[in-house]
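> forwarded from #structure-qc
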């Protein structure tokens, strides 16, 4: 039985704590949140006790720490949990600063800690199946990947201002998917961006509409497009083209009911946002982490994956600002 300390009882902390509580192989032993009421309510629901962040990390009856607090706290909490000898599952991103990720990963490496980063899309049943079939060679050599990700609507402007920008906040998931699908590191990044959804986002120094093209050293290309608007739900699609064929994964609609009449054929909007669309992915992610600890295996995606995605996000941000392609180490 893996005993978890959960830090953060907000939107994503609740999702993960419920998955742990539902597992036969794990339980939430302790929970902490800066807002005592949030911690107490979730603790009552999942059968955990409440303590301070520091005490949860140090607790003797905790094997693993799940970090679901705001982004700015992640690197410090990963280090503290790693120094306390715990396995760590931390929500993305590790930090908005590549330098801070590097210094954090040094501690993780020194302690030989098992660190997983919450790039949940790798655990979506459809995208996971797509990646497996690429690796089995069904489309031969990967040549061109397309990743499309559009939110149903923009976040509040106060969040935009502290988010690190669309490339680091939203596209970070797509950078990870691009590496996961193509299976090589990208060395060149070229970005375009605009504020077409809400001019206020532009005035805050960010974009809400973006396209990035990237290339690996062997020439493989990935194109990512993001928008903070989609009138038909949370648009999440990908397509990978190779020397022997093409694999793609479509959106998931609310129901499979279709209306056919003289005007054509129409169906439901697609699932509205991340808790609905990726519910299964979040559960599979946490369960993979639990199974990995039980089997003594280190987790993937790990800190290195977090670092590489962040480098691509920084490169895209720089390319958008300068209008020039950016090389990535
Ligand atoms: N993988 C995904 O798809 C996904 C989805 C949502 C959020 N996230 C990430 O998860 C993190 C949390 O996002 P959220 O949407 O759940 O936020 P949220 O604001 O809903 O929840 C954060 C919680 O942390 C608590 N908190 C704040 N500072 C704290 C501290 N220093 N110590 C302890 N508790 C503290 C807050 O009181 C709040 O309850 C962010 O880093 C975000 O990027 C990832």
């Amino acid at each position: 039985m893996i005993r978890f300390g959960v830090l953060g009882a907000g939107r994503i902390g609740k999702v993960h704590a419920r998955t742990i509580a539902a597992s036969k192989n794990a339980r939430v032993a302790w929970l902490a949140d800066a807002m005592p009421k949030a911690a107490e309510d979730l603790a009552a629901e999942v059968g955990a006790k409440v303590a301070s962040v520091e005490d949860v990390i140090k607790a003797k009856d905790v094997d693993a720490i799940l970090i679901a607090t705001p982004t700015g706290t992640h690197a410090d909490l990963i280090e503290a949990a790693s120094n306390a000898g715990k396995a760590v599952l931390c929500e993305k991103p590790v930090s908005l600063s590549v330098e801070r990720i590097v210094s954090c990963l040094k501690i993780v490496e020194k302690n030989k800690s098992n660190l997983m980063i919450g790039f949940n899309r790798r655990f979506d049943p459809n995208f996971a199946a797509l990646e497996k079939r690429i690796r089995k060679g069904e489309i031969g050599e990967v040549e061109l990947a397309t990743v499309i990700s559009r939110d149903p609507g923009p976040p509040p402007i106060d969040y935009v201002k502290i988010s690190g920008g669309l490339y680091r906040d939203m596209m970070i998931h797509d950078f990870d998917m691009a590496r996961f699908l193509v299976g090589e590191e990208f060395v060149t990044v070229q970005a375009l961006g605009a504020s077409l959804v809400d001019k206020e986002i532009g005035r805050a120094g960010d974009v809400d509409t973006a396209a990035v093209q990237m290339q690996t050293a062997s020439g493989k290309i990935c194109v990512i497009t993001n928008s903070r608007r989609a009138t038909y739900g949370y648009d999440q699609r990908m397509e990978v083209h190779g020397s022997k064929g093409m694999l793609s994964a479509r959106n998931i609609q609310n129901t499979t009911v279709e209306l056919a009449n003289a005007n054509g054929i129409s169906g439901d909007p697609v699932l509205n946002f991340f808790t609905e669309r990726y519910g299964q992915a979040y559960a599979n992610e946490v369960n993979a982490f639990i199974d990995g600890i039980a089997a003594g295996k280190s987790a993937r995606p790990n800190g290195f994956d977090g670092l590489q995605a962040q480098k691509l996000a920084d490169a895209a941000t720089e390319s958008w600002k300068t209008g020039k392609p950016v090389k990535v180490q």
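QC bot note: The CA atoms of residues 60 and 84 lie 9 Å apart. The chain has a mean pLDDT of 97.
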